[in-house]
Amino acid sequence: MSSSTHGATPYYFVPGPSRHPAMAALGLFFVILGAGQWINGADWGKYSLAAGMVGWLFVLYQWFRDAVAESQGGQYGHKIDISYRWSMTWFIFSEVMFFGAFFTALWWARAHSVPELGSLNNAILWPDFKAVWPSMAAGATASPAGIVEPFTTMGPFWLPTINTALLLTSGVTLTIAHHALVAGNRSKTIAFMWITVLLGVTFLGVQGYEYYHAYSAYNLKLSSGIFGSTFYMLTGFHGFHVLVGMLMLLFITLRLQKGHFTPERHFGFEGAAWYWHFVDVVWLGLYILVYWL
Question: Are 174 and 276 spatial neighbours (Cβ–Cβ below 8 Å)?
């Protein structure tokens, strides 16, 4: 896997030829193919999607297993550490842009689209339309034709506030685990990592119940005008990122139990922690802009 002498850390690790990128691309091809065909009525599409997803996840498992083995084998030196840090930085930056697009959509709807529909220019076409945000009934949303069923908006109490407390607490427990790892206290690190993972799982459970309550009691759906679409897109994608971050922390915890990472070398831990703190910050923005304002 490297041109360096066996047992010595290379200046820059150069992996050998690998099938993983091609196999991962093949799995994703069948995922996209199946999804596209399934939503267009082809029953076989769901099997293609499932097979592609299973294959893709299996490739990722092998790929990460090889990377962990290379790291534990002492192949990754200072240059690779820098590469991973830059890679994670740019990945999180791309996620910032991703959520920035949805936050911008929310702002544009509230500050421009809805007011424009209620302006004098549209008064003749939609005389009964009220340009208010948020709305609770058809005719008061960006649906002047009255095609949106009446619904109730989601406020901050109590489920979103509980989830805010859960995520903020998880940020604290993760920081405690990080300091414990740097101090060489592995047992304390593992304990607080499991607490962090449990808090993440609890957040997802509470959000699932919130969605059920919103759909059944408030009639708030993805089709509930611009409010419903922005609400579910923002909170739903954030929930997906919480799931990904929780899985990252779970696997890092399992690696800690196997004796991986040292106080001096633990970027795998740090990268997952960066991502989790990013998820926390995004939720704070969501909590204020979606539930309070």
Answer: yes
CA distance 201 to 178: 20
- pLDDT tens digits, one per residue of 20-53: 999 999 999 999 999 999 999 999 999 999 999 9
> Is-contact 153 135, C-beta < 8 A?
yes
Please give the pLDDT value at position 153.
Answer: 87
Range 221-231 average pLDDT: 89
Give the residue-averaged pLDDT of 236-263.
96
Residues 6+ away with beta carbon under 8 Å from 283: 163, 164, 167, 238, 242
Name the CATH superfamily housing domain 77-292. Cytochrome c oxidase, subunit III, four-helix bundle (1.20.120.80)
CATH number for region 1-76 = 1.10.287.70
87 vs 71: CA distance, rounded Å: 16
Reported as half-sphere exposure (CB side, CA atoms, 13 A), residue 125 has a value of 11
pTM of the model: 0.89
